[in-house]
Amino acid sequence: MLIGTGEPAALAKGAPTMERLDIDAATLPGARVLQVLCEIDSASRCELLPPALHPTLPPAVSWLVYDCPDTPWGPTRLAQTRIQCRSGTRPRGLLVSAICNNPVAGRALAEGWGYRWEPGEIDFRRGYDEVRSVVHSGGEIALEIGLREPSPLDPGDIQFVAGMHPVHTPRGFRLLQCDPTHAEAAAERGLPLVESFEAEAWGDSRIEPVYPVSAAYCTADITLPTLRYLCKPDELAFTGTEKI
After folding, report:
1. In terms of C-beta distances under 8 Å and separation of at least 24 residues, what long-range contacts does 133-139 make, across chains too?
2. pLDDT digits over 187-223, tens only?
3. DSSP secondary-structure letter at 17?
4. Where are the beta strands (DSSP E) in the chain?
5. Which of 12, 25, 36, 129 is 20 to 30 A off residue 114, Cα-Cα?
6. What one-character-per-residue DSSP string does 54-68 give?
């Protein structure tokens, strides 16, 4: 069984601080969501994860972009880079970092759900022949992904795995399980497009995409959940999981 070999102390650098864990759920209605999955170079597959998590075979990165016209903090776009993994037997996505175009929302997401984020600009376009998102950080393109030749998909066929967010909590440094629900109204799949990815802009230069795997798009009401579980980063989920 493969186990992550990354240093938890490295994940702790730049991780957000959560003063409380009893946050109320929040709903983001009418969001547009783009998810692209891509295999990554296997050389660093274990180093990208802490000992609490297991790498997937093949190793993969997922990009998840939200375009939310209505949130408690105003219109918000959020782009996430996550390493696909498992916590025990459950599929998860370790949040590397996120980019958000709304600083008020970014701070709320960090304080309430442990999203590590940086400010940036996010373009999200839906056309008849493709969906495309371009993410800018520091004036440069950090990510450009998309979906070509969309075709209808049963909304229930899209899988959004829960995130594992490195955070500083009142209990110490932990991985926070964040599992938003997506009530999809319509969905499509298509050919994945990965035009550009600047790994350093997301905080980990070891991530090297090699082969696009899948792309899906949907409209959905997203609910950011009340929090349920923490995980010690240096201990397997079977023994290191804590209820909130």
Report:
1. 133/34, 133/65, 133/67, 133/79, 135/65, 135/79, 135/99, 137/99, 137/198, 137/201, 138/201
2. 999 999 999 999 999 999 999 999 999 999 999 999 9
3. B
4. 26-40, 54-55, 60-68, 76-87, 90-100, 117-119, 121-126, 130-137, 140-152, 162-169, 172-178, 181-197, 209-224, 229-231, 241-243
5. 36
6. EE-SS-EEEEEEEEE
**The residue count for the chain:** 244
User: Which residues fall within 8 angstroms of residue 13, CB to CB, at 6 or more apart?
Assistant: none
Tell me how many degrees the CA angle 190-196-197 measures, rounded to the nearest 5. Answer: 105
pLDDT digits (tens, 9 = 90+) for 146-203: 999 999 999 889 989 999 999 999 999 999 999 999 999 999 999 999 999 999 999 9
Query: What residue type is 153 in one-letter code?
Result: L
Residue showing tokens 């960090």: 110
Asked, as a colleague might, if the bond just before 58 is cis with ω within 30 of 0, I would say: yes
**Predicted TM-score (pTM) of this structure:** 0.96
